[in-house]
Design goal:
The chain is an alpha/beta fold. The protein is built from 14 helices and 10 strands. InterPro entries: TRAP_TAXI.
Length: 337
């Protein structure tokens, strides 16, 4: 299942940038994070420019600048799983990644060739609930129906080889089907982002789109204004598979989250988290964690996804140990004992 993602990661890590980064030790890397006399310097690796993770990364950077006069912040575009390699090779101090990537990296599972032992978690950022969206016109009422009736399902499944896309494979397998089975039944799998799927669903070129998404997802709200769509529930078995293989958590998309969701829908969520490395000092991680926590009201104004962060959720982290700097702050404010 992870073979294709492994190939993608190998390609990334073989690029000139990654060869330069991965060849460096902590002392040789470009990392210059520091504190004292207003000289806090921080680099965060996130997602592509203009995307949600870019907004999140820039938002965190602003909290640092607001609380540390003279601080220098750099946002570095990146990619989910690859950001862990970027941080581990000291090309960035922090990375925005999925909980699935954290699990795979720290346990040394594919696509990572070995355990990323220096990986540490810092803060929960937001949940990405899994959405199995189909159009009303498709006639599909459940995922089981796709399997039992061998429906030629045509769907977008997010960017190929990403942890988000791989979640679809796990869900479908738990229902006894796969991309290959769907294609054998006359369906099609399109590796395009949900945000770029609206027109094709509206024009009936796609039956639906499946992927973890921030909630409520703006593209789905927009799509529902002119195209009747529905959100299908995820079985307990599929949720358990996601917990085991993706470090996911059971989640309920509440009635009213979208205009088309009239009752609670069970699913799972993959978390987006902030990570760092043991090479980054306790002091730097402490200061960044403190800046975020003390500026939560500001972060809430930056993007609604930040509203997932609360006193109860910010330390709800899995996959790798908590960084000592973050742990120190959370204990100081009474979040951890």
């Amino acid at each position: 299942m992870k073979k294709r993602f492994l190939q993608s990661m190998i390609a990334l890590m073989s690029s000139a940038v990654f060869l330069a980064g991965c060849g460096n030790t902590a002392e040789e890397g470009t990392q210059e994070s520091s504190t004292g006399d207003g000289n806090l310097k921080v680099t965060i690796a996130g997602g592509s420019a203009g995307g949600l993770w870019s907004t999140i990364g820039e938002g965190i950077g602003e909290t640092i600048k607001r609380t540390h006069e003279g601080a220098t912040f750099t946002y570095q575009p990146g990619q989910d799983g690859a950001n862990i390699i970027t941080v581990d090779s000291n090309q960035a101090d922090f990375g925005i990644v999925s909980s699935a990537a954290v699990k795979w990296a720290y346990e040394g599972e594919k696509p990572y060739p070995k355990k990323v032992e220096k990986l540490r978690t810092v803060a929960f950022l937001h949940a990405m609930p899994y959405h199995f969206i189909v159009s009303e016109s498709s006639g599909i009422e459940s995922i089981e129906q796709i399997t039992k009736e061998k429906i030629p399902f045509i769907a977008s499944v997010n960017t190929k080889d990403s942890p988000m896309e791989m979640s679809n494979r796990i869900v479908l397998e738990s229902y006894g089907t796969s991309y290959e089975d769907i294609q054998k039944n006359g369906g099609k799998i399109q590796f395009i982002a949900p945000s770029k799927s609206n027109d094709q669903i509206k024009d009936k070129k796609l039956d639906g789109t499946i992927s973890p998404l921030p909630t409520p997802a703006g593209n789905l709200v927009e799509l529902s204004t002119n195209t009747p769509i529905k959100l299908l529930p995820i079985s307990e078995e599929a949720v358990k598979e996601a917990e085991e293989k993706l470090a996911a958590k059971p989640y309920t998309i509440k009635a009213g989250t979208y205009p088309f969701v009239k009752e609670d829908v069970p699913t799972f969520a993959i978390d987006t988290v902030l990570v760092s490395s043991t090479d980054v000092s306790e002091e730097v991680v402490y200061e960044v964690t403190k800046s975020m926590y003390e500026q939560l009201d500001y972060l809430y104004s930056v993007h609604q996804s930040f509203k997932d962060i609360t006193k109860e959720t910010i330390t709800d982290l899995t996959g790798a140990p908590l960084h000592p700097g973050a742990e120190k702050f959370y204990k100081e404010v009474g979040i951890l004992k």
